[in-house]
Specification:
Its main location: membrane. The protein is an all-alpha fold. Among the domains are: about 45 residues, no CATH class; about 190 residues, MetI-like fold (Orthogonal Bundle), CATH 1.10.3720.10. It has 17 helices and no strands. The chain is globular and about 90 Å long. The relative contact order is 0.13. About 5% of the residues have low confidence.
Length: about 350
């Protein structure tokens, strides 16, 4: 087991370096870098998105003192060759130093920590509600496969899956956020302006009240995947020979279902928990965050790309990729813990 874990950790290194290297190379050819962004701000010509072209002829540099350009290049480290900047970046990442934001003048670690509470709130509630609803629903559908209940619920979850979360969010705002009909729920943020003055119970209720619309828009599309996965896993187990043998021995249907089928059918769901749990924090919908004015990690990454804030782009990419790789390793370990028939040697092959 230890040898397998060591091999997997060593294999993470080239994967991580490859992702970072590819992104770094692509960044070198993207027009409108941080130097040009600063030039545009200094000249008061608006957002850099209105400019065109790239390289030395980029319009943001025209009419600017060359000494000033060199000063800004030195400030951002662009006075060094790309290869030197690349190895300096790898050295920092090896020390878990994600760098400093060009425009927000804060470390990337601080920015991630400041945005994390919003992403954790959305991610945790999305994860728990999805599994708390979808797993029992999938079991019920498997037991009643082919019935009217199975057909109707399949239609409902598939319709929910087909509706984009952003579109559903807009609809919820129009109907219940004061858009056209009623204003039952707040429009933005996770707390009210007077949150600090509220009692403990008032803070809890205010927080939950703000979550209703964004969480609804986030989870509806997630029900279909987990529900159908649960249903198909249970149907596959129900049709196996050991279930027929257990029934032939006179065991009750409830005992067969919960003692034999349930444990085996939940293996793919349980082993997927780590990836789903961690992924819920870092894969929040950018559109949902924007629509409900939630300042989370998705919005941070999007704004960093627009402003060419490369330390934030590369730092968050490095962090999320590292978390994703370790989550995949944890998922493999869960397979062995849940099902003793699986061995690490088999997983490695």
């Amino acid at each position: 087991m230890l040898a397998y874990l060591l091999k997997r950790i060593l294999l993470m290194i080239p994967t991580l370096v490859g992702v970072i290297t590819l992104t770094f190379v692509v960044i070198q050819f993207v027009p409108g870098g941080p130097v040009e962004q600063m030039m545009m701000e200094l000249k008061g010509r608006g957002a850099a998105s209105e400019a065109s072209g790239g390289g030395a002829e980029y319009r943001g540099r025209r009419g600017v003192d060359p000494d000033k350009i060199k000063e800004i290049q030195a400030l951002y480290g662009f006075d060094k060759p790309p290869l030197e900047r690349y190895f300096l970046m790898l050295k920092r990442f090896a020390q878990f130093d994600l760098g400093q934001s060009y425009f927000q003048h804060r470390s990337v670690w601080e920015l991630v920590k400041s945005k994390l509470p919003v992403s954790v709130s959305i991610g945790l509630w999305t994860f728990f509600l999805t599994y708390l609803i979808s797993v029992p629903l999938g079991i019920s559908k498997a037991i009643r496969a082919g019935s009217r209940f199975d057909v109707v619920t399949s239609i409902i979850v598939l319709v929910g899956y087909a509706i984009p979360g952003f579109v559903l969010g807009v609809l919820l705002l129009v109907l219940f956020g004061g858009g056209t009909f009623v204003q039952w729920f707040p429009l933005r943020g996770l707390t009210s302006d007077n949150w600090e003055q509220l009692s403990l119970m008032g803070k809890v209720m205010d927080y939950l009240w703000h979550l209703v619309l964004p969480i609804t828009a986030s989870v509806v599309g997630s029900f279909a995947v987990v529900t159908m996965l649960t249903k198909n896993a249970f149907l596959e187990e129900i049709r196996k020979q050991y279930v027929l043998t257990a029934r032939a021995k006179g065991l009750g249907e409830r005992r067969v279902l919960w003692k034999h089928v349930f444990r085996n059918a939940l293996i793919p769901l349980v082993t997927g928990f780590p990836a789903a749990f961690i992924g819920a924090f870092f894969t929040g919908s950018l559109l949902i965050e924007t629509l409900f004015s939630l300042d989370g990690l998705g919005l941070l990454s999007y704004e960093a790309v627009l402003r060419r804030d490369y330390p934030v782009v590369l730092g968050t990419l490095y962090l999320f990729t590292l978390i994703g790789l370790f989550t995949r390793l944890i998922s493999d370990v869960c397979y062995v813990l849940v099902d003793p028939r699986i061995h690490f040697e088999g997983l490695h092959r």
